Amino acid sequence: MIASTGSGGEPWPLWVLVGAAALVSGLLVAGPALRRRFPVAWWLCLGFPAAWLRVVRTWRPLMAGCGLAISRKAALTVVSGLVGNGAPPPLPRVPRRGAVRPTTGGFWLLVRLLPGQVPEDFAKASPAIAEAWQVHAVRATPYRPGLVRVVASAADPLSAQQIPQQRGPGRLLRVVVGVLETGVQWAIDLRAVPHWLIVGATRSGKSTLINALVAGLAPQPVALVGIDCKGGMELSLYGPRLSALATNRRQAVKLLAALVDLTLDRMVVCRSAHVRNIWGLPESKRPVPVVVIVDEIAELFLIASRSEKDEAHAAGTALIRLAQLGAALGVFLVVAGQRVGSDLGPGVTALRAQLGGRVCHRVADPGTAEMALGDLNPDALKAAQAIRPEQAGTAVLASGEGWERARSHLITETDAEAVAAEYAHLTPQLPELVDALGGIADKRAG
Ligand SMILES: Nc1ncnc2c1ncn2[C@@H]1O[C@H](COP(=O)(O)OP(=O)(O)O)[C@@H](O)[C@H]1O
Ligand SMILES: [Mg+2]
Predict the structure, then answer these.
(1) What is the average pLDDT across 152-176?
(2) β-strand partners of 142
(3) What is the reported pLDDT for 7?
(4) Cα of 211 to ligand 2 centre, how many Å?
(5) How far apart are the C-alpha atoms of 67 and 345, rounded to whole Å?
(6) CATH code for the domain defined by 158-445
(7) Longest distance between any two alpha carbons in the chain, whole Å
(8) Where in the chain are all domains bearing CATH 3.30.980?
């Protein structure tokens, strides 16, 4: 039935040869462009089969080479060697693997651990496995007791060309700010994780991430409040879309106190309506969510004189209080800093405990990475310290569940400024905050 041309000794017809030659040369010429244009199709049709073959062929020697195989009946082997009866020594036992399944930019498989092995053994061997499979990276994570999930990414998706951020309101309080290493959208969802700590050295990508966040929140029915004690240099860009902005510590303390009052007022409203959070209130009565963005947290905590000490203390206490009460009452914190260490005072460590979402860009001092990730995941700490200066925008994200590498979309100051101006008409009026700053004049002064 099947045309067996060529195999039975007959020559291939000319048109087949010409067709094949045309196909091959066509692929060689158009290959790189096709690959760039259709990376997923390219990977699934060509890259993945080759990778699959490599995994299948190298599995046994690779496991043995990485010290993940267990030799069988060691004593017998010795004896058989001594007796010299010619029988080959038994092959070592290697962990059993499941099917290799493709993803849009790599593949994954499950591996059953041998007795005495732990998932960390595979995590440690990941770099060697990635080399053998010729992929960008391999991550091994516990799947179920006795099983490890090994995920390979063919190329670094974080170095790929950036997809522009999608515009429009999207889901309330959820913003897609970049891509994860797995190629999946990186979304910051304040309803899932209400408070965030974003750290990174100068020019590591903090402001770009905040730009992305603000650009995503601006079209939503949300109040944005800024605290930027470096004279408002960073956050005043979004001025038209901010409901209030504090540009020095004195203002910050007043604004934070007003925010705590606002939160307490909301608590009274919720209590009298017998609901546990603002989402339980009918939509007409529900107060507007407030996202408080603090740029350069160290400016709030650093003290040069005694009088400043009280101010710093007041700011710290108010922030912690907001974090504790805010989530249920629709007040969310996004705190960014360049150098966030325990040397800034006990308030910082207490505050960190309340900020469940962490983003760590490249950092200049290990203390800051430790502050952002150390209490959640030591592996994440290593990944953060490996970020190079030319990888601005790349960050390690951690929450209670685990960690990932990600990269933010490049949203420039100009973009963010334009979005803020475009949606200025949506800015909710929160007179209680503006009054605390000393009226409209102060808000504009930023
Ligand atoms: N996600 C990104 N993708 C590409 N380049 C980026 C990204 N984030 C930052 N950069 C580059 O790094 C520079 C500094 O970023 P910025 O966000 O201003 O850093 P920071 O606020 O931490 O000092 C930007 O001007 C941009 O050129
Ligand atoms: Mg910055």
Answers:
(1) 72
(2) 148
(3) 47
(4) 10
(5) 46
(6) 3.40.50.300
(7) 97
(8) 29-155
Q: DSSP state, 284?
A: T
Distance 151 CA to ligand 2 centre (A): 34
Structure tokens that stand for 137 in this block: 């990276």
Which ranges in 218-371 belong to alpha helices (H)?
A: 249-272, 298-301, 306-329, 346-354, 366-369
- By CB atoms closer than 10 A (0-12, 13-18, 19+), residue 276 is exposed
CA of 383 to the centre of ligand 2 (A): 22
State whether the beta carbon of 206 lies less than 6 angstroms from ligand 1: yes
Cα(224)–Cα(245) distance, rounded to whole angstroms? 9
On whether the pTM is more than 0.85, the answer is no
Protein fold of 29-155:
Threonyl-tRNA Synthetase; Chain A, domain 2 (3.30.980)
**Per-residue pLDDT at 6:** 47
Distance CA 185, CA 175 (A): 10
CA nearest neighbour of 122 among 63, 51, 191, 195: 63
What CA–CA distance (Å, rounded) separates 311 from 109?
A: 54
- Over residues 109-135, the pLDDT tens digits come to 999 999 999 998 998 899 899 999 999
* CATH 3.40.50.300 domain locations along the chain: 158-445
CA-angle at 174, arms to 170 and 176, nearest 5°: 80
